[in-house]
């Protein structure tokens, strides 16, 4: 697993308010530590007091974004990764290529790389053509930048989703049921230990350097807020 991923095993205690209506709840692990878990999807996969295993990733404020959830009480599971739409990536890529080609052609045209016979209008037509090409360059430049930024963003999201799918597959394989071998049993035990050890992680106070619990909001030594 990557450094920002986590496996949690525990019981759903209460659902938290979500203005968007997405699934969010607090999870209590075997050490009685509470974890705020959420997903960008709407789901009725879990209920209060259900025993669940969560494969997720850290976000700000020690919150855990749910990537995959297994409801042991209901014997059900679900992928919570929000899949990107391929047509959006393809459309932004086409827009990027199109605006880039137009931008290059406009520059070459303004530099006189493409000779044009303006007939009897002569210099007046060439001036109008030059002004038109300059305006076209000014309009195409920001459009080209926006399209390439969007394309890069969609590309990174698609890559991250692919990595998450691989991690989820590995996670599911590690806790597949029924357990048929001692190797599978050891994998499950390792996952459970990782989930239980999350609440035991420690950190150091940024003011006095004292050792404290990972989720502590105030330092027990100097009392400063973390």
How do the helices and strands line up, and which of them pair or pack?
Blueprint: E1 5-15, E2 24-29, E3 34-38, E4 51-58, E5 64-71, E6 76-79, H1 86-110, H2 123-174, H3 182-197, E7 202-204, E8 211-213
Parallel strand pairs: 3-5
Antiparallel strand pairs: 1-2, 1-4, 2-3, 4-5, 5-6, 7-8
Helix pairs in contact: 1-2
Q: Would you kindly provide a written description of the structure presented here, covering whatever features stand out?
A:
The protein is an alpha+beta fold and 226 residues long. It folds into two domains: 5-82 and 176-200, OB fold (Dihydrolipoamide Acetyltransferase, E2P), CATH 2.40.50.140; 86-157. 41% of the residues lie in helices and 21% in strands. The protein has three helices and eight strands; from the N terminus they run E-E-E-E-E-E-H-H-H-E-E. The strands form two sheets. It has a five-stranded mixed β-barrel. The two termini are 28 Å apart.
Q: Work out the number of β strands.
A: 8
What is the count of helical runs? 3
CATH class of the largest domain: Mainly Beta
Structural class: alpha+beta
Assign a percent range to the helix content: 40-55%
At the fold tier of CATH, the topology name of the largest domain is OB fold (Dihydrolipoamide Acetyltransferase, E2P)
Rg to the nearest angstrom? Answer: 28 Å
As for the number of domains, it is 2
Profile the largest sheet: 5 strands, mixed, barrel
Shape: elongated
The H-and-E topology, N to C, reads as EEEEEEHHHEE
């Amino acid at each position: 697993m990557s450094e920002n991923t986590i496996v949690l095993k525990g019981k759903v205690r209460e659902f938290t308010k979500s203005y968007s209506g997405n699934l969010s709840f607090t999870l209590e692990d075997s050490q009685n530590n509470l974890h705020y878990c959420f997903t960008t999807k709407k789901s009725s996969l879990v209920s209060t007091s259900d025993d669940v295993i969560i494969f997720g990733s850290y976000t700000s404020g020690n919150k855990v974004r749910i990537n995959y959830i297994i409801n042991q009480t209901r014997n059900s599971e679900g992928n919570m990764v929000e899949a990107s739409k391929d047509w959006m990536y393809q459309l932004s890529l086409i827009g990027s290529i199109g605006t880039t080609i137009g931008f290059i052609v406009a520059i070459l045209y303004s530099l006189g790389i493409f000779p044009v016979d303006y007939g009897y209008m002569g210099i007046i037509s060439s001036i109008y053509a030059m002004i038109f090409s300059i305006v076209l360059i000014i309009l195409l430049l920001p459009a080209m930048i926006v399209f390439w930024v969007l394309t890069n963003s969609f590309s990174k999201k698609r890559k991250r989703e692919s990595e998450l799918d691989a991690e989820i597959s590995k996670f599911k394989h590690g806790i597949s049921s029924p357990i048929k071998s001692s190797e599978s049993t050891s994998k499950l035990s390792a996952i459970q230990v990782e989930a239980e050890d999350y609440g035991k992680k420690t950190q150091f106070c940024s003011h006095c350097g004292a050792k404290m619990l990972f989720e502590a909001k105030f330092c027990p030594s100097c009392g400063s807020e973390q």
